[in-house]
Amino acid sequence: MSEEEHLIEEEQAEESIGLSGLALRHPRAATVVFAGIVLMGVLAYLMTPRFESPQVIAPGFTVTTVYPGAEPEKVEELVTKRLEDVFQELDDVEWMEGYTGRSVSYLGCKCFDDTDMRPVLEKVHKKIAEASRLFPPEVRRPEIMEFSTADIPILIYALSGDYTTKQFRAFTERMESRLELVDAVSQIIVEGVEEDEVEVKLDPALLRQYRLDVLHVSKALGARNINVPGGSMKFETGKYLVTATNTFRSLEDMRRTVVGFSGATPIMVKDIATIRVKPKTLNYKVRFNRDRAVTVQVIMKGGADIFRVTAGCDRVIADLKKEFPPDLVIEPVSRQRDSVTKVVNTFESNLFAGSLLVGAIILFHMGLRSSLVVLSAIPLSILLALMVMSFVGMKYHKISIFSLVLVLGMMVDNGIVMTENIF
To answer: Going edge to edge, which strands form the sheet with 60-66?
Structure first.
């Protein structure tokens, strides 16, 4: 390049305005910024967690309470309304909606959008303890569940083979204990294994003979199997809570429970019923390749990387297959990672194809040097967007990646329009 041409370029750079002029006046600084954006964009792309769907924040909770054998009107009066009264005192609750059915009370509470749920749930536990003192003794302990869109299994494994319920339970318990050790695993759910339950089979003839009924026996067993808070005691060493424990520890305790009297003779459960432990009957069946099966579902903690969690679970399953019998089939039937990988691959292929298309068109019209300058804008813009997403805490999922694909198409169009305007 001659000295005259060099002076002309310097004069054009001084006349340029905006980012383009600044980059022309300081080429070394522009190169450093360009390299920094590329490096940080690549690191952000590799390190940012990936999900199938965005995690929607919906602060709220549900309370489910079981009142065995009670009619809806009784459940509404003795359970649902009392819970609604104590929850009305919570300032963070925006609205609540209750449903009452036979033997069950369901109450859903929606909190304000900016609510921190941790202190709210602590208050909810205290309010439930306050309301529980007014419940009938037959009412079971209310179950609290926080609203969460992250409680969706990212992995579902199926176990199948010619094994008994007891053997399947042993297999799944070992899997559950090992999978829970994987980093960022929140919960393991097992489906298809019948849990044990105690069956009390009453003799109708003996009930009529002793003038008893099913509800009377149920209340007697429920009253015998409870833990009663006894307050607290203060000592010099501290304050201690007192609880009166009165629960069944064996089937013999249930058999010896007194349900009435015949004169001066006590009537026990064993006099009018037979008691045994049996598998709980499920209202569904799990099949895998037409064979009986059970499923183990893995739920991931919010904010974790689905690829790392899946890889960790797969390593655990590979080790367990070596320990389990060879005819026990363990296969994944659902993987969120596969759908996320498909979306990411679509984005990468569109980025490559778009860059190649724009590069070919611009190269034909402008030559190699000019086309490289224009072509670099596409990957640089994507890497800059990925860097900003990482800084603001945005994650990669179907919606965010689809947005990048959409913007990629716009940048391809802009590159072609730019070429047409120049020439």
So the answer is: 93-101, 104-111, 60-66, 143-146
